[in-house]
Amino acid sequence: MLSSSRCLSRNIGRSLSAIRQGNNVLTRRGAAAISTSYPFAAKNTIKSDPRSSVFQIQYFRTSVAYRDEVLTIKTPAFAESVTEGDVRWEKAVGDTVSEDEVVCEIETDKTSVQVPSPAAGVIVELLVPDGGKVEGGTPLFKLQKGSGAPQAAAAPKAEAPAAAAPSPPPPPASAPPPPPSTAFEPIPTTMPPVPPVPTHAMDAKPVSSIKPTAPAAPVVGGAKAARTESRVKMNRMRLRIAQRLKEAQNTCAMLTTFNEIDMSNISEMRKSYKDAFLKKHNIKLGFMSAFVKASAYALSDQPVVNAVIDDTTKEIVYRDYVDISVAVATPKGLVVPVIRNVEGMNFADIEKTINMLGEKARNNELAVEDMDGGTFTISNGGVFGSMFGTPIINPPQSAILGMHGIFDRPVAVAGKVEIRPMMYVALTYDHRLVDGREAVTFLRKIKSVVEDPRVLLLDM
Known about the structure:
CATH 2.40.50.100; 6-stranded mixed sheet; 4-stranded antiparallel sheet; 9 helices; 20 strands; mitochondrion
């Protein structure tokens, strides 16, 4: 009986061993088949469970270099009021760019939109010519991802055979030059031959990379210099500014009223508190904040100046908020970023906002949202030395205040002639909506607030 049990145990053990061997064979055959059919899975790990007749395959994603991947960069979406723009390229085909580096700039009617590179790589193709018009979503250029240019990698290979070639033997040492002759040599009667101009150097560079040489200085007493002209295409911003100004002249019945402001008190206040103001608010105290705050105060007193005519419905739209546009001159043209809700700001808030918007304008970072809206505009020509002028309304607004330079002039004060720092101010308004009484009252309110800022505290 015992021997029968041992025989039975041996038979069971042999059967289990055969099953395990069969599973191993199946596992190896399955792995070989997978490796043959799917080369990318050659490095995959195949595991077998000795307690099961089903083999398991564990997949691992191997790292892949995407250096050959080519991306197509498209035009970013514009604001609702902007439909198209002109492309101005900062880079060319073959240039290596880093991530977030500006590749091109799209000039729209209101601002410029910068298009950065989404990754480091090489520009392989420009899909839009320089100056071409694009809309939102238009393909701009193709970028090959990677840190180096393919041309740079091919350059060492091309230079390798040249380096391997044997160098020519050095020329024999030349004899020492003869001593200079003291006798006078005869003057040559023929011109020496002119060496030919090499053309291969010019052909090796694109036309855009060859800089023109500076013109020679005119010879004194010789012929007059040539009278030349140059043509430069107007950018979209300048075209839009010209169009809006002409529309304002054609639409509005513009009339301008003037006044003068004695800047003595505001200058004394600025001189007394500018250091303390700078220490507390980390911003300089200027005259612009006083005029912005005075304009908000006058607009609340004369709400019709803050209103606008809706030509489509023939209605007057009154606004209970004050958003003042401040004209800022940039190399590309005049922009008018908006200071919103001025009625709730103090001098420090206004100065900080003006400084922030001015910095964005100088760095060409103004967005369309920064210039949309605005119920009133202030233009400060005094920073350029202007003494007198009539500003043009910024549509669809109804009025604009023009500031000018501060000059010492003799004025009558309490029956005496005194020298005071004076500024001329001008208010241009749409006479279809604003009458002369409201315009003059508005300008006198600004004059009273700037000449004596205590009027703001007393609400007079």
